[in-house]
Every structure is written in structure tokens, then in C-alpha cells.
Amino acid sequence: MTYQEPEPPSLADLGAKLDAARAREDTETGRTRPEGARSGAGLGFRIAVELVVGIAVGAGLGYALDRALQSRPWFMLVFFCLGAAAGVLNVYRAAKSLSTGE
Amino acid sequence: MSNPIEQFKIKPLVPLHIGSVDVSFTNSALFMAVAFVLITAFLTLSVRGRALVPGRWQSLAEVMYEFVAGMIRDNVGKEGRKYFPFIFSLFMFVLFGNLLGMIPYTFTFTSHIIVTFALASVVFIGVTVIGFARHGTHYLRMFFPHGAPLATALILVPIELISYLSRPLSLGVRLFANMTVGHIILKVVAGFIAAFIASMGVLGILPSILPAAFLGGITVLEFGIALLQAYVFTILSCIYLHDAIHMH
Question: Does the structure show a pLDDT above 80 at B88?
Fold first, then answer.
């Protein structure tokens, strides 16, 4: 009459099963990121921020270097240009990751 | 008429000073604490039943878990799973901060750039440490594109360095700007209604219809932005983590 409680599966067992199930799911579905949830305005805003921030960091870095080395304004001039390049690079990377759906 | 910027003012609730540093418990800190308590309560209470068939609250908690877990799996890969607790905490904190701000008379702590920048810096420093821990000095290759002629290093390395350093700023600015702008628009449009009523009395209700309708739409939009920005903040953190683990 005594009912034997079934042995609960060990955690390691469960983990292995989970991993297997996840791997199966990954290969079956091809696992793509849900796309299309982004709004156009948000996208534009993101790109704009990337560009401005690159320039700001470049100019800020140049300014800090100038203050430290008392070489105003040369570092700031150079780093402003480098920052602008970095900003464009940021935008390029952001746009690339969008188009390839990375 | 209330100033649309007034809502972002930091007010010390419990003045505290350590030496000359002001560490007062402010309204911003209060709402961070509220967010923390709400998150903890929500997650612990909702899964307390541990039902196999989840109820409403448990489903909600499971949806959050699945959402962040899926985000990490898609953007970081298998190795990212051990960073789940951090990413999940980050997501919940930003999400609750954004949503708490949508309740009238509350304070939106994500509308301060120092808060979002501090969060972004934690991500940035953490990701950089992980990168160096995994790849050692090889991680410095991040700053020099593969296959470029050595002579171009003089220009390319600073550009890559600035691009890398700009990450925490762009991460922080994006969240801060979205939240601040949304709240200012809400306040300004609501201010039109208050101005109509104040100057025209009961008749002011008639011209108020337009801004009121507009306000309704904007409020819905703001809820969307609150969710979207929490998502964007988290997914960009995931992408940075991916770069640190795999190197592009």
C-alpha cells in the first residue's frame, strides 16, 4: 500500500536534457533575431547619437590632452578630426549591423 | 505655470554629508530603491507558487526571463549565459526606472545622464575587463583592423580607440535623451491645457481638446519608448559583450 515517491531527476541530468533541447531548438529554428520592431525615428536617432558622440569624445580627449600638455589648440584640432572619423565609423558599423541583421 | 524642466530637479530628502561630499538620500535615490524593491517583490512573489502551469504573474516573470535569455543567446551566444544575472538585473532596473517615471508625480531616474552614464560605464568597464581576461594582450587587436598596412596604424589606432571609448557615452546618452525628451514633451503639452483653463475658465475646455488628444497619444508612445529603450540599452550591452568575447 505504500506509495513510493519517484526519485527526482538530478540537477545535472536536468541540465543535460535542457542543453540538448536548446541545441535542438537552435538548429531547428535557425535562431534569427526578431526584426522589424524598430521604428524609423528611433533608428535615425541612434545613428545621430553615434555620430555626435564620436566627435564629442574625440574633441574632449584632445582638449584634455591639451590641458595636460599645455599645447592648446593642436591636440584638440587633430583629435576633433579623428573623432569625426570615429563618428562616421560608428555610423557605418551601426548601419552595417542593421542591414546584415547581425 | 510649471516649468517643464522642474520635474528633473534632484531634491535631497535626507541630507547626508561624508566629509565635503554630498551623499544625501535624494528623490532619485528613493525611486531607485523603489525600483529595486518592486523588482525583488515582483520576481520573488510571482514565482513563489512554482506552478507547472504558470498563473498571470508567474507568466509575466517567465516572459521576462525568456526574453532576456533569448536576447543573450542570439547576441552573445552560448558563452554569454553566465552573464545572464548581470544583463537581467540591468534590463529590469532600466525597465522599472523607465516605467516608474510614467506614473504621475514620480521621478524618472533614467532621465539623468549621470545615472545612465554610470550604468553604461559599468557595462563598458566590465566588458573591457572580460575582453582582456579572455584574450589577454591580444584584445588590443580590437584597435587595429586585421590586414591593414602597419603604416596606417598612426591614424587607425586613435580612430578605433575613440570609437571604442565613445560606446559608454552613446549608450548613456541614448537612454537619457529619450527619457528626458519624452517627459519634457508630456509636460509642455499638458501645460497648454493648464494655460487654457487658467486663462479662459470653463470655456478653456474647448480648445483643450486638441492638446488632450495629443497628450493621450504621446503617453502611449512614451510607454512604448520606455520599453524600447530598456530593450535597446540591454541589447547594445549584449552586442558589446559579444565583441569582447568573440572579437570582430
Answer: yes
Taking any CB pair shorter than 8 Å as contact, residues of chain B touching chain A are 73-75, 155, 158-160, 162-163, 165-166, 169-170, 173-174, 177-178, 228, 232, 239
Angstrom distance (rounded) from CA B225 to CA B175: 10
Domain definitions of chain B by residue range:
6-246
Q: Does A62 lie at the interface with B, CB-CB under 8 angstroms? A: no
ipTM rounded to 2 decimals? 0.78
* Closest alpha carbon within chain B to A62: B162
Four-CA torsion B217, B223, B226, B232, nearest 10 degrees: -80
Rounded to two decimals, the pTM is: 0.84
Q: What whole-number distance in Å separates Cα of residue A60 and Cα of residue A39?
A: 31
Length of chain A: 102
Upstream peptide bond of A73 is cis (omega within 30 degrees of 0): yes
CB distance B174–A39 less than 8 Å?
no
* Closest-CA residue to B31 (of B107, B93, B90): B107
Other residues' Cβ atoms within 10 Å of the Cβ of residue B42: 16
Q: Is there a cis peptide before residue B15, judged by omega within 30 degrees of 0?
A: no
- Report pLDDT digits (tens) over B165-223: 999 999 999 999 999 999 999 999 999 898 888 888 888 888 899 999 999 999 999 99
Backbone angles phi, psi at B22, to 5 degrees: -85, 110
